[in-house]
Design goal:
Blueprint: E1 3-8, H1 17-32, E2 37-42, H2 53-63, H3 70-75, H4 77-87, E3 91-97, H5 105-114, E4 121-123, E5 129-131, E6 137-143, H6 158-168, E7 173-179, H7 186-206
Parallel strand pairs: 1-2, 1-3, 3-6, 6-7
Antiparallel strand pairs: 4-5
The structure holds flavin mononucleotide.
Length: about 210
């Protein structure tokens, strides 16, 4: 059975505009792909393990080409569970608002946990890295308070960052559904949100997953 992993990075629940866009996608997706399982990972509610002094050493062990061992292996059980949950999904939906021109800290925290050598990427000749995830697609529902298309595109560190980090682990087929501006007047907000919901539902119906 195929599984869509929905990663939620907006803590605003019913108030969230991002989740309205994601819901429009999911509603149409479930209708057109009834055999799929939807796995929801709400990062605001998840007690993610820390990347503290005890854990971070594991990254350097993996970078040196070795497997985790001893106490480190035990400390990494939860991290490896998150990596496995991510790695084994067939399709990803990320729901993320823009925070400070980029992504909310809980999504960055999650990325810092799962993007690990030997699990999601590996080094080949001359320090060149290759992503280990193949043939996976990702959809990002992204809302922003301001307007970035057109004039302020160079302030958008959300889309380029997400394309870079997920491209690094092999996911380059990424479709963004953006709703903006969400905080520059009620009329434009309503209109752009509706447009994004329609685009999300259309994408869900045509996605070749
Ligand atoms: C902590 C925080 C930081 C934000 N930073 C930005 C920003 O840098 N640029 C922007 O356009 N909007 C910013 N916003 C506005 C949100 O991106 C916008 O309201 C979005 O639609 C919120 O999504 P939600 O309704 O799913 O929570 C910020 C909002 C919060 C709470």
């Amino acid at each position: 059975m195929k599984r869509l992993l929905h990663i939620i990075a907006s803590p605003r629940e019913d108030e969230s505009r991002t989740l309205q866009v994601a819901e429009a996608f999911l509603e149409a997706f479930v209708e057109t792909h009834p055999e799929w399982v939807i796995d929801e990972l709400d990062l605001g509610k998840e007690d993610l393990p820390s990347m503290n002094a005890k854990q971070v050493g594991g990254k350097y062990v993996l970078l040196s080409g070795k497997d985790l061992y001893g106490r480190l292996k035990e400390n990494w059980i939860e991290i490896v569970q998150h990596i496995d949950r991510f790695k084994t999904a067939d399709l990803y939906l990320i729901s993320t608002p823009m925070w400070n021109f980029s992504i909310p800290y809980m999504l960055k925290h999650y990325i810092d946990l799962i993007v690990q050598p030997r699990y999601l990427f590996r080094y080949v000749d001359k320090g060149k890295a290759v992503g280990l995830l193949q043939d996976k697609k990702m959809v990002v529902a992204a809302t922003r308070g301001g307007q970035y298309a057109g004039g302020s595109k160079d302030l958008d560190f959300q889309e380029p960052y997400l394309r870079t980090i997920f491209g690094f682990i092999g996911i380059s087929d990424i479709e963004f559904i953006k709703a903006e501006p969400m905080d520059m007047g009620v009329e434009i907000q309503k209109q752009k949100l509706e447009e994004a919901k329609t685009a999300a539902a259309e994408l869900a119906r045509r996605i070749d997953a």
